[in-house]
Amino acid sequence: MKILAIIPARYGSTRFPGKPLADIMGKPMIQRVYEQVQKTKKIDHSVVATDDERIFQAVIAFGGNAVMTSEKHPSGTDRCFEALQKTTGKFDALINIQGDEPFIDPEQIDQLAELITQKQVDIATLISPITDESLLFDSNVVKVVISKTGKALYFSRQTIPFNRNISKELWLTEHAYFRHLGIYAYKAEVLETLTKLVPSGLEKTESLEQLRWLENDLYIQAGITEKESFSIDTIDDLKKIIGKI
Question: What is the reported pTM?
């Protein structure tokens, strides 16, 4: 199976304009992400998908691959599909890698690549165990329930499953809870299908695009990882991560 890595990178972030070009120890953030992808073993080709000429030129300057995409895409999924169409070559699957995770572990990307090769899988994603009570009850942390084989059953901003028999302080001792890490792999033909699906009721209620996919009976396989990634959403996040280097 031939796999393409796509890194969407927008300039116009509300909380951090120009984020992909933010300097991290002498390199723009987007270069840091791109270089992590190059360390993988299962990715055949990588490309940055951007709507901004400044980001495009920065990628070309450090020797990377980039394509220009529309400014009007409603989601990163739509931007990935356009990038797939504009990238030379035939690919069986692709992985959407967040452009604001400059130190993403290459092994996590390879783990996704392995999951998407399974015949029944339409979409693959990663989840990690929740061990901190503050994350368990944080509505900004997306939780996921999986089957015995790792198939995603539901995603929610609420704490799921709800344990009605014991106090909340004991939930983590009685059941395994998982948080969703926002990285996906798609079969190429599935990605085109996703761009044609209309927003669903569950998606609108929870503001989670992946619920649209579940409502349309797509098979989402979740892989468990113990490794935490760190996304940069604000300038303060950037200061924190530089302090850890």
Answer: 0.91
